[in-house]
Design goal:
Elements lengths: L13 H12 L4 E5 L2 E5 L4 H16 L7 E5 L2 E3 L7 E2 L3 E5 L6 E3 L2 E2 L4 E7 L4 H14 L4 E6 L4 E9 L2 E8 L4 E3 L9 E3 H8 L6
Helix pairs in contact: 2-4
Amino acid sequence: MSAASVERPHDDRPLIAEANRLMDRNPGYRVEIIGGQILVSPPPDGAHASALTNLMLPFLAAGLHGAESQVLQGIGLWLPSGAEDYAVPDLALVDADFQEHLVENNCYDPICFRLVLEVTSSNYQSDLRTKVSAYAGADVPVYVIVDRKHQRLHVLTDPAEGGYGNHRIHAPGEIVTLPDPLGAKVALDVAEILAAGGPEPAS
């Protein structure tokens, strides 16, 4: 994404304008605005990408990438927490008509998001803290975190102001069935996903 591809000018949106400049200057980096703060994440390592591929497979096998929903990487989610706030989750399950819900800056209304998922990198605290309140505030029904640092899988449901009402932590050896709002049953093998993700890189 670059400033040239934005749907409308951002002269009156200084944070978005700066975020787009940062993306232009740092190809491969992820730039987000959460709570009025610009967050810049370095390109993920190969194990991160491997974990994402492994995570997509159960969703695809469940038939969730089709006429009713789509499984997408790196799609922008417009956040209600600030005038220019948006996040870019590693993986998302969205309604198939998500393109009808474009807000701005290649980001979409959270109403079309059924699930967001993050695989932690060196800035893992953002995924485990900052984004919990951000995604809950956007009323995203399910938030999954692959915590490579602590070798755990977090499943958060029941969004409420400030966080999620239900937060379950799963260890290797468990098979986790994700909650119903997704549209189909999806089971995740915690050990398999964490093995694909490998150890988290040092910060």
